[in-house]
Amino acid sequence: MSVTRAVAVGCGHYLPDRIVENAEFEKTLDTSDEWIRARTGIERRRFAAPNQTTSDLGIEAAKAALDDAGLTAADLDAIILATATPDQTFPSTATKVQAALGMHHGFAFDIQAVCAGFIYALSTANAMIRAGQAKRILVIGAETFSRILDWHDRRTCVLFGDGAGALILEAQTGQGGAADRGILASDLHSDGAYNHLLYVDGGVSSTQTTGVLRMEGQEVFKHAVTKLAAAGEVTMQNAGVTAQDIDWVVPHQANLRIISRTAKKMGISMDKVVVTVQDHGNTSAASIPLALSVAHARGQIKRGELLLMEAIGGGLTWGAVTLRW
Ligand code: UT7
């Protein structure tokens, strides 16, 4: 039976120039390169320049993805941008990218699911493509988390970085089986009972300030491995594949210990896991498309290979997507 599939036809990323090594935090905080490496796997991260916004990063990633696909903005029907650090409260950062690309047709909107944002955006784009609402969607994850960090809180400020990644999905006809290219299955979850574990202590309607990130790290850690592995397993089952069929796991890059324990729980070895956390830190919604694009640029991920992406973030929100590249 022929079905419409959302197939990846190009991807790209952008990282701001400023590289911040772990050692830089030793000057102002009671922390060490050793602690950060051992507990998280992070060695360095990028921070946006003071005048660089989330849309600036997203625009560069979008251009790289269009180049990679051999397309222009005229070929797109929609832009979905996942971010928790928008340029402004409104308009959406997606419409800023749309304007910069000179795109006056179609539609653009933001998705807010914090670190799980890219999984939510992919799943939404897939549903719209399968419903015939759009043929080509540019899906972006872009963040400037350096703008919402408490520089006095060593438990959080050493963990995050800035960056953007983008993926173009295109409607193509598949046979309806696991051999099809494109998104084969997705699984989304949230549970607002855990709002207090990871949040920003400000906002438009509450304090009229931006606020800074607060996290009960250990509590989030406890939820992460179980919830991520469960979502991964559901998408594999719904796609009709097993852990042995997965060529690459492209996980949210928050903590190397979470990444490796989740892979182990799903029965997938670490040599099949794309790891960029050492260079990017946690870039929230940008982390999966950044890792994907870096692996694609390295020639690691090849056409026809089976990918499993999974992420968890504030909300709590979590989910997974299986996609044949
Ligand atoms: O992307 C959204 C999802 N977020 C995540 O996935 C994050 C999940 N959580 C984590 O990755 C980890 O919990 C952290 C990396 C945040 C923390 O690692 P941990 O092994 O859970 O450490 P901890 O919070 O239990 O802290 C252990 C100790 C504490 O000291 P005491 O109380 O034992 O004396 C902390 O105060 O480490 C201390 N500590 C630090 N020490 C040096 C916390 N942060 C630092 C630091 N440098 N930067």
Overall description:
With 325 residues, the chain is α/β, with parallel strands linked by helices. It folds into two domains: 3-174, Peroxisomal Thiolase, Chain A, domain 1, CATH 3.40.47; 182-324, Peroxisomal Thiolase, Chain A, domain 1. Helix content is 30%, strand content 27%. It contains nine helices and 13 strands. It has helices spanning 23-26, 33-40, 54-69, 93-100, 117-130, 217-239, 256-266, 277-280, 287-297; strands at 3-14, 18-21, 44-47, 78-82, 107-111, 136-144, 162-174, 182-190, 198-200, 213-215, 248-251, 306-313, 317-324. The chain has a five-stranded mixed β-sheet, sandwiched between helices. α3 (54-69) crosses α4 (93-100). The longest helix has 23 residues, at 217-239. It is globular, with a radius of gyration of 18 Å. The two termini are 21 Å apart. The site of oxa(dethia)-CoA (UT7) has 20 residues, from α2, α6 and β12.
* Major beta-sheet overview: 5 strands, mixed
CATH topology group of the largest domain: Peroxisomal Thiolase, Chain A, domain 1
**CATH top level class name of the largest domain:** Alpha Beta
Which spans have pLDDT < 50 for at least 5 consecutive residues?
A: none
Query: Judging from the principal axes of the Cα atoms, what is the shape?
Result: globular
Percent strand: 25-35%
Structural class: alpha/beta
Bound molecules: oxa(dethia)-CoA
Task: Enumerate the strands of the largest sheet in spatial order, edge to edge or round the barrel.
Answer: 1-7-6-4-5
